[in-house]
Design a protein that fits this description.
By secondary structure, this protein is α+β, with helices and mostly antiparallel strands. About 40% of the residues lie in helices and about 25% in strands.
């Protein structure tokens, strides 16, 4: 069996095990199987809930801003329709917002100034499992001679929160500001607690402060795992500043941030401001 086939079999097995675990009856501590198990949770279809998305974020690293802009323009024209043909519902292409990032503390300019970000969502497990084939299908877009279009790539796959099941596009004006934040946790227990923190009140505070989510998800695999990654979209930078000021000064956040059950849920935070390409759907 070729290595590629082995990886695909392993991926299918992993998703199958995860699905069986998620759908299994939960046995109360101290009870033996068969004694009044907690009923299984209803499926999304049974509950009427919108299906949760898988959100895949690809980051392509180039040698500088000139190469970055050329690659982003190529993706804007050719990659978005290709990913639609593969089955992804929404596809966004972004580069770093140079103006907003120039004063951001801790920003790794050497790494991200030349980066192109592709964000896409799907409800299909099959697309997730066949993602390697989808990537291979666009190889003709790239220059493979000595002057490479990009020199490295990172991929992270997220499972959206039940409370934010699908990618949303709250605004599409040209001046919109896209903020992508990743909260890296020290272990999976703290990672689960960080998701709970959002769903137990932090997300509501975001919305009440005018910070409308594009997506919220927890990493299935990829860089900086375990993590919670989310994206916000603001109509402009003034709206972004006002929203964050209202949030951090709210009584709800002051109370939530001091709750000991959410301690050490985020030990490393990556904050990026992004600019969408003209045809970006996010």
């Amino acid at each position: 069996m070729e290595r590629r086939d082995i990886l695909k079999v392993a991926a299918v097995a992993g998703v199958a095990v995860a699905t069986q675990t998620a759908n299994a009856d939960i046995i109360a501590p101290g009870r033996r199987p068969g004694r009044r198990p907690v009923p299984p949770r209803p499926t999304e279809a049974e509950s009427g809930q919108e299906p949760q998305n898988y959100i895949i974020i690809e980051t392509f690293f180039t040698t500088g801003k000139e190469k970055r802009d050329a690659l982003a323009a190529k993706f804007d024209k050719e990659l978005i329709p290709q990913r639609h043909a593969a089955g992804f519902e929404k596809v966004g292409v972004f580069t770093i917002n140079d103006e907003l990032m120039k004063n951001e503390k801790g920003y790794d300019a050497d790494k991200y100034d030349g980066a192109v970000f592709v964000v896409q969502g799907t409800t299909s497990t099959e697309l997730l499992l066949n993602y390697q084939d989808i990537c291979a299908g666009v190889s003709t877009l790239f220059n493979l001679d000595d002057d490479l279009d990009f020199i490295d790539e990172e991929v992270v796959a997220l499972r959206s929160f039940p409370s934010v099941p699908a990618i949303d596009v709250p605004n599409s004006n040209e001046e919109r500001v896209i903020q992508l934040r990743t909260y890296n946790s020290p272990n999976y227990d703290r990672n689960i607690a960080k998701q709970a923190m959002f769903e137990d009140g932090e997300l509501e505070l975001f919305r009440n402060s005018g910070m409308i989510p594009v997506f919220f998800g927890r990493a299935v695999f990829g860089s900086m795992a375990p993590n919670v990654t989310y994206m916000l979209s603001f109509k402009d930078d003034e709206a972004r500043r006002e929203g964050w000021s209202k949030f951090v000064n709210s009584e709800g956040w002051k109370k939530l941030s001091k709750d000991p059950k959410y301690a050490r849920t985020a030990t490393r935070i990556r904050n990026l401001f992004l600019s969408p390409t003209p045809n970006s759907e996010i």
